[in-house]
UniProtKB/TrEMBL annotation:
Family the UniProt entry places it in: Belongs to the heme-copper respiratory oxidase family.
Spans through the membrane: 44-63, 83-106, 127-150, 170-194, 206-233, 253-277, 289-311, 326-347, 359-383, 395-419, 431-452, 472-495
Official protein name in the record: Cytochrome c oxidase subunit 1
Organism: Yanghanlia caeni
Statement: the UniProt record of this protein carries the keyword Cell membrane: yes
Enzyme Commission number(s) of this protein: 7.1.1.9
Gene that this sequence comes from: ctaD
Principal location: membrane
Compositional bias annotation for Basic and acidic residues: 13-22
Cellular compartment(s): Cell membrane; Membrane
Length: 536
């Protein structure tokens, strides 16, 4: 992060409070239902995404319960596939994406010295679309035929044959996609138009940069997903034949359209985490971020390359050798800018005055485990290997190392880092460390054995398996329950902090932290920068 200091920290509330009493937060439920303040909306996003994390996590634990031993114990395969599908959809569209938008709402105006987000009412609307989508996802379990069971990717022809639960999923994806597009527009306009005087683009904290690039990605890909699911909808109900092979359609076309959305989407879920880690590591290393400009360019390079590699998800569809070679090399190319980031974080820590508070523990844990996920991804980029382990537990292991240990650990790092600024009290450091070590150990117990299961040929999305896979599945299930219960430590810690149980937090609780957000009191006042600060 560049060393931004506020030359003049303005009064954080109006001098004439009695004239402006109606500008404070509304009382009771109206404050939240009609919220237009970026902090309140950020809080709503974060609370909602944690609730969806718990729902998606319960579905995952139901899956692991069934897989504890071979044979069918609890769920018939159709219901098992519904759990698999909805676990993926709820975690991606209901938890990870909204959580990062919550971070953006809270932190971007504070970090660039803006008074609020650019479009306050649209901000409220884009949030309230989310519970509607979540209700559609959840209710779909109770319609005839049950929820969508075609996998979170909703591949045709399966998605053409599902019951009405599939239509619920399509509408939910549309609604959540519209919310994402509005959030992205809001972030782009806020970052480009509302920076404080002197805050050039290359003085912004990296979190703002990663979100600006992510927002452009969202604008490019969400309409593609909308097109794909709309074509599924018309195939299902209006007699078109985009993906119906019996009527001359092409099911593989669906995969091309879906992954043209789906691969950049993976970076939508990880780039904001890169931004958070790029704030936390320098703060606890007490050094400026190594290679700030190269981090910005690497983020942009990742975003551009992410559009050129979609068919590496499709090596097993029988594409030509030339296409396989192109997608293989393009995928390997992405590891270069990603490597730049990892090396820059390590170089930032090198010879720094490190301390290991909870945000830093999660940041280092993120770097370690995300790098493992990156290496397994590099192996999957090699077409002959990918064809062998395609649709096995190896892919599940890779994906969760990137998403859980990537996105989720990144979020936890940011949550602990900024929680004093949000709540005005210091969180319970001992509980935070318990949360980190418990999550880190149980995560690896859960997902590391899946690499071996996949290499041995255990297919994913199956409710039953051969006896030789029993031991690793038992270990993974035990780890999964441990990991799930570990997240309740975080819930309890946040409840304590939000009830103001703890030491009052100073304006700048972390000695090495830089940036405008630390120039305002903790908790951040309802109206932050009435006059914009001047950045020197």
């Amino acid at each position: 992060m560049s060393s931004v200091t506020a030359g003049h920290v303005p009064p954080t509330t109006h001098d004439h409070d009695h004239d402006h009493a109606h500008h404070g937060p509304a009382k009771g439920w109206r404050r939240w239902v009609f919220a237009t303040n970026h902090k309140d909306i950020g809080t709503l996003y974060l609370v909602f995404s944690f609730a969806m994390l718990l729902e998606g996590g319960i579905l995952a634990l139901l899956l692991r319960t069934e897989l504890f031993a071979p044979g069918l114990q609890f769920f018939r395969p159709e219901l098992f596939n519904q759990f698999t599908t909805m676990h993926g959809l709820i975690m991606i569209f209901g938890s990870i994406m909204p959580a990062f938008v919550g971070f953006a709402n809270w932190m971007i105006p504070l970090q660039i010295g803006a008074s609020d987000m650019a479009f306050a009412r649209m901000n409220n609307f884009s949030f309230w679309l989310l519970p509607i989508g979540a209700i559609l996802f959840t209710v779909s379990f109770f319609v005839p035929g049950g929820a969508n069971a075609a996998g979170w990717t909703m591949y045709a022809p399966l998605s053409l044959q599902m019951g009405p639960g599939m239509d619920f999923t399509i509408f939910a994806v549309h609604i959540l996609g519209a919310s994402s597009i509005m959030g992205a527009i809001n972030i782009i306009v806020t970052v480009l138009n509302m920076r404080a005087p002197g805050m050039t683009l290359f003085k912004m904290p990296l979190f703002c940069w990663t979100w600006l690039i992510t927002a452009y990605l969202l604008l490019a890909i969400m309409p593609v997903l909308a097109a794909a699911v709309t074509m599924v909808l018309t195939d299902r109900h209006f007699g078109t034949a985009f993906f119906n092979a019996a009527a001359g359609g092409d099911p593989v076309l669906y995969q091309h359209i879906f992954w043209f959305f789906g691969h950049p989407e993976v970076y939508v879920m990880i780039l904001p985490a890169f931004g958070i880690i790029s704030s936390v590591v320098p703060a606890f290393s007490r050094k400026p971020l190594f290679g700030y400009a190269s981090m910005v360019y690497a983020t942009a390079a990742i975003a551009i390359l992410s559009f050129l590699v979609w068919a590496h998800h499709m090596f097993a569809t029988g594409m030509g050798t030339t296409s396989q070679l192109y997608f293989m090399y393009a995928t390997m190319l992405i590891s270069i800018p990603t490597g730049v980031k990892v090396f820059n974080w390590v170089a930032t820590m090198w010879r720094g005055a490190l301390t290991f508070e909870t945000p830093m523990l999660f940041a280092i844990g993120f770097i370690f485990v995300f790098t493992i996920g990156g290496f397994t991804g590099l192996m999957l980029a090699v077409a002959p290997i990918d064809i062998q382990v395609h649709d096995t537990y190896y892919v599940i292991a890779h994906f969760h190392y990137v998403m859980v240990a990537g996105s989720l650990f990144g979020m936890y790092s940011g949550a602990y880092y900024w929680l004093p600024k949000w709540t005005g009290v210091m969180y319970d450091e001992k509980l935070g460390k318990w949360h980190f070590w418990s999550s880190m150990i149980s995560f690896n117990i859960t997902f590391f054995p899946m690499h071996f299961l996949g290499l041995a040929g255990m297919p994913r999305r199956y409710a039953d398996y051969a006896a030789q896979f029993t031991d690793f599945n038992m270990i993974a299930t035990i780890g999964a329950f441990w990991f799930g219960l570990s997240q309740l430590i975080f819930l309890w810690l946040v409840i304590k902090a939000s009830r103001k149980i703890g030491e009052p937090a100073p304006a700048k609780p972390w000695e090495g932290a830089t940036g405008l957000e630390w120039s305002v009191p903790s908790p951040a006042p309802f109206h932050t920068f009435v006059e914009p600060p001047v950045v020197k």
